[in-house]
Amino acid sequence: MTSKITDVPGIRVGHVQRAGEGWLSGVTVVLPPPGTVGSVDVRGGGPGTHETDALDPTTLVPTVDAVVLTGGSAFGLITAHGAQRWCEEQGRGFAVPGGVVPIVPAAAIFDLGRGGDFAARPDEAMGYEAAAAAAASSEHADVGRGNIGGGTGAVIGRGAFKGGVGTSSITLDGGVVVGALAVVNALGMPFGTSSRRAESGSSEPAGPPALNTTLVVVATNAVLDPAECKRTAGAAHAGLARALNPSHTLADGDTVFALATGAVGLDRSSEQARQVSLITLQSAAADAVRLAVLDGVEAAESITTAAGTFAAYGAV
């Protein structure tokens, strides 16, 4: 069975997408259990994000109610409003007089026009539907991979090949689980794939680089504070650099969110033990991201090949 981000207890994933009639885009929502701590690290030169400032460790609210990964570039960030509305209806959010304010950060990939209609992009209703789909899934449910959700219109290699959604998990000693989910829409290509690209008969398109982004959610059941989540998100970016060449370019909006559900304590019996525990977890986060990115490319390849389209990765 494929390892997945939902191996982390309490983490659920929902996908919604549309393809055809001008559409090739979608939304993915990662729904953690209430009280989950989170942060984010943005490294790409062209990010499209929403509410990431709220995840700074120095700000008021340490918890995250949902994370939205969407197509539609900056237009698609409206999907976060739909996920936020779903959370409010469930009473999930930061308590304020008269109700709650759900903390729902989001990030977007550029897939505008890839289905033929530049105006066909995810909206608030799709964000709501994806959040509801995540909540309706079972504990440890399988996660859709490939051209689904936020990865429906994803591409790699300057737009020459299909990208998609991938996932992975790693289990450490003591019951700590680290999982990752990636929406791979990269300027670059996976390391070691140049020969396969040549065999496909494709060449890099002329002109300026396409607009791209790889979005990642790392989740763990460990107890982490917001600053430790921030450091984990930063360390996890190493997984992108190990999987994709190049990464973190001016044309990429590479963004990593980190979530900690707080179910399993790390060894903090001494300062040395604390450091070793955090380094071990953060190293696993980087490796989980690397595996999730490669899984997303592999899943997109198998789907496009099965559909009888372009060999190797499937051109769009």
Account of the protein in words:
- A hairpin with a 2-residue loop joins strand 1 and strand 2.
- Helix content is 27%, strand content 27%.
- The chain is built from five helices and 16 strands.
- A five-stranded mixed β-sheet has the order 1-2-5-8-4, covered by helices on one side. It has a five-stranded mixed β-sheet with strand order 3-16-14-12-11, with helices on one face.
- It is an alpha+beta fold and 316 residues long.
Uncertain runs are: 194-208, 305-316
- Classify the fold: give the CATH topology: L-amino peptidase D-ALA esterase/amidase
Shape: globular
What's the alpha carbon Rg, rounded to whole Å?
A: 18 Å
Helix content: 25-40%
Strand order of the largest sheet: 1-2-5-8-4
Which key phrases capture this entry?
five-stranded mixed sheet, 27% strand, disordered C terminus, single chain, 5 helices, alpha+beta, 316 residues, L-amino peptidase D-ALA esterase/amidase
Topology:
Layout: E1 12-20, E2 23-31, E3 37-42, E4 49-50, E5 67-70, H1 79-89, E6 94-96, E7 99-101, E8 106-108, H2 124-136, E9 155-156, E10 161-162, E11 164-171, E12 177-185, E13 189-190, H3 194-199, E14 213-222, H4 226-243, E15 244-245, E16 255-264, H5 271-306
Parallel strand pairs: 5-8, 14-16
Antiparallel strand pairs: 1-2, 2-5, 3-16, 4-8, 6-7, 9-10, 11-12, 12-14, 13-15
